[in-house]
Amino acid sequence: MTVGRAPARFKRTARRNRRNGDSIPRPPPAAPEEAAGSSVDGLRLPSQPAAILPKDFFLVDSLELAPRLLGKFLRRDEVVLQITEVEAYRPNDSACHGRFGITSRTAPVFGPGGHAYVYLCYGLHTMLNVVADKEGVGAAVLIRSCAPISGLGTIEERRGQKTKKPVLLTGPGKVGQALGITTAWSNHPLYTPGGLEVLDGPAPDKILVGPRVGIQYALPEHIMAPWRFAIAGTPWISAPKNTLHPP
């Protein structure tokens, strides 16, 4: 083992005002909640508490709803996440679960816009979708990635991962795990107070678009459709990133 020189020790001293010698306290690092009205990692944070989005917000084509959800917030208890990446799934889309028709699993996706559709991927990952359009249409928006706004300790505990890096929430299964939801949350109205809510938030200045991820089973025109949307300039986006580009 090589023994190097011991690092120098420095005595901590408060900074002094040159004029009167008063100590100038250093402010503590701002928590996500305290950064309201600012921009962090390419994300715009609200300057005041956000309101729950009304039901009418969701009653549009999923291709219209998907980019509109960017910058909005998901809230469950003390955990608040800002949506940074989504994918649209439409009627007659060979990658949409609605292609199977109404079954016990897919029935929620045919429900009214603004409700949750939660399913298990590979029997392991809980995937949160926001149902779009009118009841019976069969369309939804998958929440692919988010950024943590509050409740970081709870998020880390649920994820079993102590980190503030994007790996914490970049992937749909990670989002579901961070929110602590199960398939029992399917059909939950996201526009009512309590439980799981979608809150208003600032629209991003710029977005990126590209093909959706992991749908090789779909028809070629649906594989290549640019129905994946993300906030530009933020690291809170899942892989692959090189398929995303300005619209």
From TrEMBL:
Gene Ontology biological process terms, A to Z: base-excision repair
Family listed: Belongs to the DNA glycosylase MPG family.
Start-end of Basic residues biased regions: 8-18
EC top class, as a word: hydrolase
Region of interest (Disordered), ranges: 1-41
Molecular functions (GO terms): alkylbase DNA N-glycosylase activity; DNA binding
Task performed by this protein: Hydrolysis of the deoxyribose N-glycosidic bond to excise 3-methyladenine, and 7-methylguanine from the damaged DNA polymer formed by alkylation lesions.
EC number: 3.2.2.21
Protein name according to UniProt: DNA-3-methyladenine glycosylase II
UniProt cross-references to CDD domains, sorted A to Z: AAG
Record organism: Musa troglodytarum
Reaction(s) catalysed by this chain's protein: Hydrolysis of alkylated DNA, releasing 3-methyladenine, 3-methylguanine, 7-methylguanine and 7-methyladenine
Annotated keywords: DNA damage, DNA repair, Hydrolase
High-level lineage: Eukaryota, Viridiplantae, Streptophyta, Embryophyta, Tracheophyta
